Amino acid sequence: MTRPINFCSGPAALPEPVLHRMQAELLDFQRSGISVMEHSHRDHRIVELFSETEIRLKRLLGLGDAYRVLFLPGGATLQFSQVPMNLLSPNRPAAYVTSGTWSEKAIKAASQYGPVVEAATSRDSKFTKIPDRQTWVIPEDAQYVHLCTNETIQGVEWFGSLADVAAPVVADMSSHILSRAMPMHEFDLVYAGAQKNLGTSGVTLVILKTELLESAQSDGVPGLLQYRQQIENDSMVNTPPVLSVWVLALVLDWLESMGGVPWVEAQNRVKAQALYHAIDHSGLYRNPVAIENRSLMNVPFVLQDPSLDARFLLQAESAGLMNLKGHRSVGGMRASIYNAISEQDVAVLIDFMREFERTSG
Amino acid sequence: MTRPINFCSGPAALPEPVLHRMQAELLDFQRSGISVMEHSHRDHRIVELFSETEIRLKRLLGLGDAYRVLFLPGGATLQFSQVPMNLLSPNRPAAYVTSGTWSEKAIKAASQYGPVVEAATSRDSKFTKIPDRQTWVIPEDAQYVHLCTNETIQGVEWFGSLADVAAPVVADMSSHILSRAMPMHEFDLVYAGAQKNLGTSGVTLVILKTELLESAQSDGVPGLLQYRQQIENDSMVNTPPVLSVWVLALVLDWLESMGGVPWVEAQNRVKAQALYHAIDHSGLYRNPVAIENRSLMNVPFVLQDPSLDARFLLQAESAGLMNLKGHRSVGGMRASIYNAISEQDVAVLIDFMREFERTSG
Fold first, then answer.
1. pTM (global) more than 0.90
2. Closest by alpha carbon to A171, among A145, A142, A152, A196?
3. What is the CATH number of domain B259-359?
4. If I label A169, which of A8, A191, B258, B314 is the partner at 20 to 30 A Cα–Cα?
5. Distance (Å, rounded) from C-alpha A182 to C-alpha A169?
6. Gap between the Cα atoms of B2 and B207, Å rounded
7. Which of B129, B158, B196, B325 is catalytic?
8. CB distance B22–A19 less than 8 Å?
9. ipTM
10. φ, ψ for residue A16 (rounded to 5)?
């Protein structure tokens, strides 16, 4: 049986070599004779798994000692609450840019914990772009500015600079972290669920400048959700999601072995360019996103004749192309082409789309 | 290489057949051609994995429609906060029985969220027992009573009845859930991290009577941490820890295939009896716990001559007996003999202990 090509937006396709390695090493972690799941998290092997994964991530992201990486439970959704629970104070507002479904959820969650303002939004254009930097209105005393740098559902991605933002910048990078070189030093706190580009669900990365916590709150915040406590305990305030961290570690190892971010960025740009080109040059498909904000990772598209949607999905499935249905809130189709999707996979999709258009006329 | 016998208190040994099945099915979940990790959590296969696991758990626990089972992130430690965040009100106290390290953490966390009283404690006896029911002082208007029914570190277990407690009963069963038949209907909310007796870390069971939530709080509680929202969304308020739930499902399937709770209880009683008998009839080893509270799952013991500790651990490791070191707070040794540890495994441990005593005189 040929392995299907899985365009799911997340949980998403994993690199096949990672799955084979998991399979091979599942019963014997580092020659201990038992599984990674069976070790105490206080065992030196697991402590090293965590510290080495942090080091590897910082190397891949180009970050130094000013930053720490935490491996936390609860997904990016818990970070929507955890960020303001830790950072927001009663007297200074946080400024949120809303550019799609996920940043809308983020601002809604934050408003429970303190003053929040919307610095800019592209709601009026149905989130087909991210508001330009010069339109953002950031209060002078802003505690932080929050941005979702890639909106998975709308397929819009941030390629601009934030170097001129005075307040600390917090970003949800769940669906494009490590997909290309990014100016990570412009960010003070970045979070990302692992199940899109980095591994499997159950663990969320929080990458933060430790100096950000000097003004951190803790009243009423469960110890497990306090960044400071997690930093002091190297992400082990309690038993962490070891298995998910192991999968993450294997994905990062695979990424480095393939050539790291430069390799994957080159591949991702070729994939996205080919797919957008095929859409733009078709008579059937259309992508509504502003050219400058088109995501390299999530490519939504609609069929000009929506009555063909069901047949498109059925034939795609038969051809081994899985999970192309768009999110119900925007309709149509979506191809998520994360790091684990190859140029060849995208070529197969494009061939299928052309053949479908040809035979559906 | 012989597989070592792993007496770790958690994360703990898994049944070897579960590991082999994971390995066999890792790349192809239910003939979909892709891994369980690669499916959307909205895919019918994953939705069914969750609903079938809930059904199986309720069957194994003997629970009906009054209860729901949730699969949540954050470990039992997050439940220490989440229980009072959801259930505690400003005007009615919660009553906690403190019988060891974990229940001490639970009451400390709860006291952040509202009035809390200690109904009873065995602190004076160094937590070598659980306070008798008749000594508990429960306020008449108690919102709930909290008990840790098996203290992993001290090795004390609750075998009494709670049928006469008027207030709702909340229990931390992390380290002995599904180890024997228990009067589950005496409990209104039970939580348990999976990494001891049920699977791997990353998922925590919360089993609760839905009527308990009629007075539930939600102000300032992140949506993800609201039991009511998780019930309404069948544990999928956001992307849940699918891989850990799959491991849990495989462990439950193994347990049922072996004969369920009656089978495992019989085995667990034989194992514990043999080990305590060996300790009590030795000249070298001693277990300090009151007979009526000796845990079937966690058996701490000290060597009369602590200078032998290091040699004991070294020789045990050489003999393929892993993780026998006791928790630093109590010292000595601890053998955790969860469901995945067989009678034969315990027999090997007892043989080793006897041989060590014979050669260390």
1. yes
2. A145
3. 3.90.1150.10
4. A8
5. 14
6. 38
7. B196
8. no
9. 0.98
10. -60, -40
The confidence score (pLDDT) of residue A1 equals 64
Is A197 in the B-facing interface, judged by CB distances under 8 Å? no
Cross-chain CB nearest to A37 (options B112, B200, B225): B200
A319 to chain B, minimum CA–CA distance in Å? 13
Average pLDDT over residues A88-98: 95
Closest chain A CA to residue B74: A73
What is the CATH code for B16-257?
A: 3.40.640.10
Q: Please say if B102 is a catalytic residue.
A: yes
| Arch. (CATH architecture) of A260-359 | Alpha-Beta Complex (3.90)
pLDDT digits (tens, 9 = 90+) for B199-253: 999 999 999 999 998 877 788 899 999 999 999 999 999 999 999 999 999 999 9
Q: Alpha-carbon distance B209 to B262, whole Å?
A: 24
Residue pointed to by tokens 């941490």:
B225
Quote the tokens at residue B93.
Answer: 């106290």
**A97 CB contacts (<8 Å, ≥6 apart)?**
A103, A118, A119, A120, A121, A130, A131, A136, A145, A146, A147, A148
Nearest-Cα residue of chain A relative to residue B40: A11
Nearest to B193 by CA among B361, B77, B37: B77
Give the B window 52-71 contacts with A, CB below 8 Å: none
Residue A2: pLDDT band (50, 70, 90) is confident
Asked whether the beta carbons of residue A8 and residue B202 sit closer than 8 angstroms, the reply is: no
Tokens 């069963």 belong to which residue?
B173
